[in-house]
Amino acid sequence: MKKILLATFVILLFLFAPWVFKAKADHFDPLPTEFAYCEKDLSQIRSPYLITLERIDKWEKSLQTYFENEKIDYSLQLHFYTYLYLAQRDAAFLSYNVHKCFVGSLDPLTKSVINAFFPKFDTFPELVTDPYSEELANQIWPPYLKRLKKEETNPPQFKSCDGKPLSKGTQKVAKWIPWITPLPEVPPPEMKNTQMPHTQLSDEQLALIYGWAGEKGLDLQWRTLANTFMYDHKTPLGKTLFVRSILMEGLFDAQIASKLAKYTYCIARPSGHSLIRKPSTPSYPSGHATQAGTAEVILSHFFPDSTQEWCEMAENSAESRIWAGVHTPQDKAAGMQLGREVGTDQIKRIFLL
Questions:
Q1: So what's the pLDDT on residue 272?
Q2: Which of 56, 204, 276, 338 is 20 to 30 A away from residue 349, measured at CA?
């Protein structure tokens, strides 16, 4: 009899552990989701699992290996992670709103997002799932998939300057649907780009050039920098999911805004030698500077005590393109301005939801 009671206790503890060991969300009530969902279907189901950052990010290593092997470009990675982080945030927040804790597994949802973007990906880690987690995925992914399919049929927002075909990555960005509308714009450039003077660079500057360009085994990205910062500072799960989803939305829109401006003004890259491969896209404004301005605003908003750190990172990212010989100060200034406006608009959009 004692064994039966003990076994029953263990089973009950396993089933109701998520409610015993609650993970606290430290902002918003209810937690905001990008789309509206039906809570009733989830309220009748239970799960023995808790959503944790470790369980979510177990996919990262396999994904990065796949990206490297398949040479997945930055734009496609940005596209994917924007949808993934938003969907994961919605799933976790919906679950919290229903049960007042982050209950369930995001494995079924994560697998659905990966399959939509990378059908050939087959190195999945061991999946943790149950009926609750499957239902969570079935609720969250359809509106995102609908949006993704709409992008596939969306008419391009810009065309080539010289009649040459756009790169595959740029063709995809041309069809992306921005999260904020209308997107901010930059004024026309004051002059055409000319040759940049050669200057002696330090080892630190060279490392920043190659790091922000993703060359020579170095790879600096705002997504990974923000994730590392939040992990090192033990940021709560709810805030981590919230911040990184908003950051990706901002970077997503910054990519569209900078490309729209590039193909509006069609300013050639500065002539002369460059330390990295010159991108095939027009020069004005700098895409790196646009992304830097956006990241600086969003991350400074959520982590104001580290504003100086974000500003220094943004400055280094934008300036590295000038040091490399692929942009001019004019490109950088316009990009930073545009990016900061995108970031500001993104913050306003989120907090007016």
A1: 86
A2: 56
